[in-house]
Design goal:
Layout lengths: L7 E7 L6 H19 L5 E8 L5 H9 L5 E6 L10 H11 L4 E4 L11 H11 L3 E5 L8 H18 L11 E4 H6 L11 H7 L4 E5 L16 H21 L8 H4 L20
Length: 279
């Protein structure tokens, strides 16, 4: 692995989080430093903020903070005509393709996730020889009543339709191998809610860990709809994920230039540009 390549990429999508960005970057920097100490490599991490079409000062403040922090990058996505952003699935899609490390951590930019949990997640992944560690906020959840009820309904649907036993699949705080991240069908809206079950369907080992959860102190939640308007699309998505699981098949391949040293190796192509992700 090249010395300048990080071991962990931390990805956070943000939409209109101008009042949270500075503290977020500080906390991720401390957590990343702890990861670096554990791994014995001062360049062990990078932080990628995905600005999902913010209409406030989120992008400007993030870019100012990035100037003095070589481990911090800002990826800008174009806005939608409605000004609501492209959504978490699209933001994760863009972020995963910007990652340089073989391990990817996710968290929300609203400061409700605690980046300091990442060290324990890394320890658990190694101890359990897992491919993904999914955070579980159930014991400490600080969301309002509507969001908690919506999560319970969603968990019921996922259990009945998908056989999904993950307690808190809506928790963005998770750690996974990059190969999983790149295989997720995030070009479809809403698939970010099914990351753990999709990973299990693909044959990866997913374990859960209790994590901290904090009340939002600045900005506005992006989940303004009531329970029923969110439940129906979620139910439809469950059947879509189930259909995908029946059509998915494992793919194996072999590099013939490695198997046959007498064959000429193809010249490397130009690096692809990181796009803003799908709409």
């Amino acid at each position: 692995m090249p010395p300048d390549r990080p071991l962990l990429s931390i990805v956070a999508p943000a939409h209109n989080e101008q009042d949270n960005i500075e503290r977020l970057v500080e906390e991720v920097g401390r957590a990343g430093g702890n990861v670096a100490n554990k791994l014995g490599n001062r360049n062990a991490f990078e932080f990628i903020l995905i600005d999902d079409g913010s209409t406030d000062l989120t992008r400007l403040r993030a870019m100012e903070l990035a100037e003095a922090r070589p481990w911090f990058r800002v990826i800008a996505m174009t806005n939608t005509p409605e000004g609501r952003g492209n959504g978490q699935s699209a933001a994760f899609y863009a972020g995963f393709r910007a990652c340089r490390a073989d391990l990817v951590a996710l968290l929300d930019a609203d400061l409700q996730n605690d980046p300091s949990d990442l060290v324990a997640m890394l320890d658990l992944m190694r101890r359990e020889n897992a491919d993904m560690v999914q955070g579980d906020r159930s014991a400490n959840r600080q969301d309002n009543f509507i969001r908690r009820v919506g999560s319970r309904i969603g968990r019921l649907f996922r259990g009945l339709i998908l056989g999904d036993s993950i307690r808190d699949t809506g928790c963005s705080l998770r750690l996974m191998k990059r190969e999983i991240a790149l295989r997720l069908p995030l070009e479809f809206k809403g698939v970010h809610r099914f990351i753990p079950v999709t990973a299990r369907q693909m044959g990866y080992k997913v374990v859960e860990m209790t994590v901290s959860h904090r009340p939002r102190v600045a900005g506005e939640t992006k989940y303004g709809m009531g329970v029923l308007p969110r439940a129906l699309p979620g139910l439809i998505d469950c059947f879509a994920i189930r259909w995908m699981s029946t059509r998915r098949r494992p793919v194996s391949s072999m590099d013939l230039t490695d198997a046959r040293p007498d064959l000429p190796r193809p010249a490397p192509g130009p690096p692809s540009a990181i796009s803003g992700g799908p709409r």
